Every structure is written in structure tokens, then in C-alpha cells.
Amino acid sequence: MASARQVNIAVIGAGGVGKCFLSQLEQLAARRASPKLVLTYICSSKKALYNTDHLAIDLDNVTSTLAASTAAPLPLPKLVEFLSSSGSKTVLVDNTSSEDIAAAYPKFLGQGISIVTPNKKAFSGSFKLWQDIFSAAEQSGAKVYHESSVGAGLPVISTLKDLVDTGDEVTKIEGVFSGTMSFLFNSFAPTSGSGGQWSAEVKKAKELGYTEPDPRDDLNGLDVARKLTILARLAGLEIESPTSFPVQSLIPKELESVASGDEFLEKLPAFDAQMEETKAAAEKEGKVVRFVGSIDVAAKQVKVGLEKFDLAHPIAALKGSDNIISFYTKRYGSNPLIIQGAGAGGDVTAMGVTSDLLKVLSQIS
Ligand SMILES: NC(=O)c1ccc[n+]([C@@H]2O[C@H](COP(=O)([O-])OP(=O)(O)OC[C@H]3O[C@@H](n4cnc5c(N)ncnc54)[C@H](OP(=O)(O)O)[C@@H]3O)[C@@H](O)[C@H]2O)c1
């Protein structure tokens, strides 16, 4: 029987964030004697490492060991069984963006397995899945944290929870929630200088690795809509899904169905005039255009799209690919509580996951 002062860790996903998390876990496990942190399962989409008797997997060079493994990942129902039969408390770390894994959270939680994750899918899917997740956790006592699902490692979700739990009244949340959109608009419509052509900025962002392989996956606004769904629900709104409120897509209608991201980039310059007009209209008012999400809590309105901001506004003054999130509340009055900084990157995103793991450990061990 495993010791009560041992917590097992199962990791799904060892990509950009997963690798950084594993390195942070290795340091954490070496630093903290109790509870003993034991990696008992790790997988990517095709390979897995585990011992049927739940013995520890060596964290040293674990990603290379995983790459060399010939074992396939366990199907999710089998994984639930495997993890819940270990005799120790277990935390599942989901470092994927898989909807299937997200849909299985209630099963894991129902069996007492806690979850920490940067994956937005579970919390921005259907409202029913949201309810199932939190009722399964409540019933079993398992914990679920997802700080990095909004703003990567920035303390956005924990701050909102603290505001709500201590009885403040959140009236509005507004911000730039996408590193890609931040980079694009800070270079297309800077507060000083003229900025580049829209299509050239999109191409540059792709070359620098700031966009998804197909930039339309950033420009359709859905990623921002998912983050807004999560925050609106935490603020108390019953948002049905990320497509149940207005989301402005920056993909020209004519280019929605072109076959590839490369073809999209090739044809985008023909539509630069539309974005130039938007930029010029803002400039005429002494403003700049930015792609923002906002939640008007009292009016129960959520929206995502282009807005104009005075040059002195913190949203206009953002730099690089930073995120900024402003919480307007009764206690903070007319000066919002503002959180700003890198909203993407393996190390900072994994930091949010690791700090969630520490919160879970303090409650279950
Ligand atoms: N990167 C960031 O800056 C950032 C910021 C905030 C939030 N996030 C979130 O963090 C999560 C991970 O992002 P990432 O950048 O690390 O992605 P990534 O580099 O694409 O890595 C994803 C990992 O998950 C594995 N995977 C995917 N589907 C799986 C499945 N069904 N079963 C088992 N393993 C599966 C992949 O395996 P293969 O290698 O075999 O495909 C890969 O190891 C996502 O939810 C993302 O939205 C990322």
C-alpha cells in the first residue's frame, strides 16, 4: 500500500507546455520531501509510460524515455481505472488541447482524481460540461484548477475568484486576451509611428511563431471567445458556449474557405484596404484600434471584437505580445485592478499549472 504522504502525478501531453511542466515538476519533487511526488503515468498522443504496479517513473530525461516507449496511451476509461486503483491520491495534469480528454474530466473527478490544466476546452465547452465538472469535484472532494486556461501564468482566474469569493461586485472585465492579436495590433496600429500593412503583419507574426500554423485559427476570435466564456462563468453568468455571444472574425468572408493557411496568407493583401479604413477611422478620433474581449456583468453581455482606445489607455499602450486584463469592481471604483504581462510561452504557462498543483497538494495531502 502506498504511503498517505505520497501523491501520484499523471501527465497527459508533453509538448511546449508539457515539457516545461515536467522540468518544473522535477525541481519541485526534488525540493519537497512531503508529500512525495511520484510520476506514475505520462503520455503523448501516441506513446505512454507507466508501470502496471504504479511504480515511479524516473523524472530524469522523461521526455526522451517517453519518445522511445513502445507502449500506447491507455484509453480514457482504462486510465480512470488505472489511476483510481493506485491507493494514493492522484493529480491528473492535462497539458493537451484535447476536447475528448476535457469531456472525460467528470469521470476522473468523480473517482477522486484531481485535475490541473491549461486546456481551455472543458471550461469553455457546453454549460452542462462545466456543471458536471464542478458537481463531480464537489461530490468526491477532488480539486480542479485551470489558471493557465486564461492569460497563461498571469494570475487572472485566481484574482477573479478572490474578488467574487470575498464579496466584491465585479461589474466589468475587459482586456486583450490573445498574445497573437496583441502582437498584430501593436505593430499594425502602434501608438506612435504608422505601423505596417495588415497582411504583412499577419505574415510576420506567423514567421515569428506567434500564430497557429493556419493564422485563421487566431483571426476567427474563437480562442478569445473561449477565454471570455471561462471568465464570464466565473463571474456568475450562465454562458451557454463560446459561440453564444457576438464574436467578430477578422477573416474576410471570401477567404474563410480557402484550402490552406498559406493560400490564405497569399490572398490576404487584397483585403488590406478594409483594415486600413478601420485604422484610419480610429486615428481620426486620436485613437488606435485593438482586438478586445469584454464582459458587462450587470447587463450580462459578452463580446469580442475591434474597439477604439485613446492613446493613453492601458490597452492602447500594451507592448509586444503581452496580455492585459482589467477588472472593474465596486471596491476598486473607477480605477480598475489591472493584470498585465506575457500571456503565452511554455515556461510561464507551466508556472500556472505548477502553482495550481501546489494549491491542490495543500488541500489533499
Ligand atoms: N503554449 C502556450 O503558450 C500556451 C498558453 C496558454 C495555454 N496553453 C494551452 O496549453 C495546452 C498545451 O499547449 P502546447 O503549446 O504545449 O501544445 P503542444 O505543443 O501542441 O503539445 C500538446 C501535447 O499534447 C499531446 N496530445 C494531444 N492530444 C492528445 C491526446 N488526445 N492524448 C494524449 N496526448 C495528446 C501531444 O502529443 P503529440 O506530440 O503526440 O501530438 C503533445 O505532447 C493547450 O491546451 C494550450 O491551449 C498553451
UniProtKB/TrEMBL annotation:
Domain Homoserine dehydrogenase catalytic: 155-358
This protein's UniProt keywords: Amino-acid biosynthesis, Methionine biosynthesis, NADP, Oxidoreductase, Threonine biosynthesis
GO molecular function, one term: homoserine dehydrogenase activity
UniProt KW NADP keyword: yes
EC number of the protein: 1.1.1.3
Cofactor requirement: a metal cation
Entry's Gene Ontology BP terms: homoserine biosynthetic process; methionine biosynthetic process; threonine biosynthetic process
Active site: residue positions: K227 (proton donor)
Ranges of residues in domain Aspartate/homoserine dehydrogenase NAD-binding: 13-147
Highest rank taxon of the organism: Eukaryota
InterPro entries on file: Asp/hSer_DH_NAD-bd, Bifunc_Aspkin/hSer_DH, HDH_cat, HDH_CS, HDH_short, NAD(P)-bd_dom_sf
Function as written in the Swiss-Prot or TrEMBL entry: Catalyzes the conversion of L-aspartate-beta-semialdehyde (L-Asa) to L-homoserine (L-Hse), the third step in the biosynthesis of amino acids that derive from aspartate (the aspartate family of amino acids), including methioinine and threonine, the latter of which is a precursor to isoleucine; production of homoserine leads to a branch-point in the pathway as it can either be O-phosphorylated for processing to threonine, or O-acylated for processing to methionine.
PANTHER family documented for this protein: HOMOSERINE DEHYDROGENASE, PTHR43070
Protein's UniProt name: Homoserine dehydrogenase
